[in-house]
Amino acid sequence: MQHQNLFVFDIETVPDTDAVPNLTGFDDPGVAERREELERYHLEKTGGKNAFPRQPFHKVVAISFLEAEIDRSGDNEAYLLRELRSGGEAGFNEKQLLQGFFGYFERLKPRLVSFNGRGFDLPVLKYRAMVHGISAPWLYGAGDKWNSYTQRYSTDWHCDLLEVLSDHGASARVSLNEVCSVMGFPGKFGVSGADVAGMVDDGKIDDIRHYCETDVLNTYLVYLRWMLHKGTLLEDGYNAAIADIVALIQAESEDRPYLKDFLDAWGQASGNNFTL
Fold first, then answer.
1. Burial level of 272, CB count in 10 A (0-12/13-18/19+)?
2. Count: domains in the chain
3. Does the predicted model carry a pTM greater than 0.90?
4. Is the pLDDT of residue 25 over 70?
């Protein structure tokens, strides 16, 4: 199957404190206390190595994505940027977010692009969809044994850049921010994933969505550079895709000032050399 669109995505989450009483029997109603209990549980499970909750114990608070049309010419591709946005309403409703994501995904049937999407984002989305009784048959039924969304090495269906760039663990798995830092992309600025729970507590859902969208842009920038490295994307196509991003930011920066902040950070990181 030749996909007609790229779908670059990222999610933001908070710990699922509702699950704590069933998990450990801890029944204090306080959210902060339950988060501490969830950390205690995971530290115990990992021998004190990692307090980060496992994938089922995350509630999704934001899903952001970039959609681009794939234009083919022989063995080469070019990408035409269509939109960058976050799904759902500004208010937090996890079930609606998940219904929107899987519904849009199955209508579009795109090539997925992520950074650690196979290890974190998609597993979280699957578990949380199961929590809410949401079906996603296309995720499992499309393709064949060797080419599908569930085939780890099928990068034409789901390109997880963390896996690809580390040769599936043969070399060190580095963070998105680390990759961006050496390529002159903005990476993290202003907000990190560790801030999200506090931002939810303060009702700053829009700020979380904006942060998530900048992570999507960073992921897309790394993807473009990797496809150029592969030879699938030619230099002219790469520069055209970069120009599309800059044009989108310039067109929408008045209504979306966080995109202007992203462009400013990109200019600082790259010495204002956006194209090659």
1. exposed
2. 1
3. yes
4. yes
